């Protein structure tokens, strides 16, 4: 759709109408499973202001017309979803999960699957803190117990923006404050310029993590061989119950028998018919 110079010059002073919000929120839900109640109208309006500027649309009416009447949604869908997804992340977030991983899950997996490469999946990886934390824990555990064993971390997300940041592996140094000092020295590189408050994950650790875009609303998850461990933390809270069932069922299908599923501490699987049993707080084992 071509936009005239006159349209480009108009100020972005309109507001997101209820009609436009309803259309957008339905599309976002159908595409990603993310609930957008009316209480989030102001948030959505603020986040989409940048998309209006990038697409040179003077109003929300013209933006929504471009998306849904003139075929723009095919090209714009990735950017629209990037604008509305929440991407909070921390290294060693919910640390008891990583304690359980080291103390119980990994010893059990090594005993049950003695001849396999350890495959793990961070299914909502955001900017990479979770999969890189998983890789650090795996590397430390295997190097001290069975150095001949190999591992791989698959990291997926719906947002292309966060995936690009995760692949670079560059972070503000204070974000890595929770990383133990011995792991920092092994897996994190500091800038030679002391004025830069940035660090980067080492190439060796980055090589153990593969990033890909994946929509948890898809009917199947093309992740290759079944996983020994799957992390799906702090994403289910954005879904309604039917979508949670959909996602959890497919995650279980991607998990080896005896494999482990980790969900967020504010999340639950109560009421769902799933082939898992609880083994710790928000940790489940495939039966």
Give a written overview of the molecule:
There is one protein chain. Helix content is 43%, strand content 18%. The protein has helices at 5-8, 18-32, 41-55, 60-68, 73-84, 96-112, 129-145, 160-168, 181-187, 203-206, 241-253, and strands at residues 118-122, 151-157, 170-172, 188-190, 198-201, 209-213, 227-232, 255-263, 276-280, 283-286. The strands form two sheets. The protein has a seven-stranded mixed beta sheet. It has a three-stranded antiparallel beta sheet with strand order 3-5-4. The model is unreliable at 1-12 (pLDDT under 50).
Concise overview:
The protein is of the alpha/beta class. It has eleven helices and ten strands.
- The amount of helix comes to 40-55%
Strand content is 15-25%
Q: Based on DSSP secondary structure assignment, what is the total number of beta strands?
A: 10
Shape: globular
Question: Biggest sheet, in brief?
Answer: 7 strands, mixed
Elements, N to C (H/E): HHHHHHEHEHEHEEHEEHEEE
Summing up helix and strand content along with how strands pair, one would put the structural category as alpha/beta
**Nearest-angstrom radius of gyration?**
21 Å
The oligomeric status of these chains comes to single chain
Arrangement of strands in the largest sheet = 6-2-1-7-8-10-9
Mean pLDDT: 90
Number of helical elements: 11
Spatial gap, N to C terminus: 53 Å
Query: Which parts are unreliable, with pLDDT below 50 for 5 consecutive residues or more?
Result: 1-12
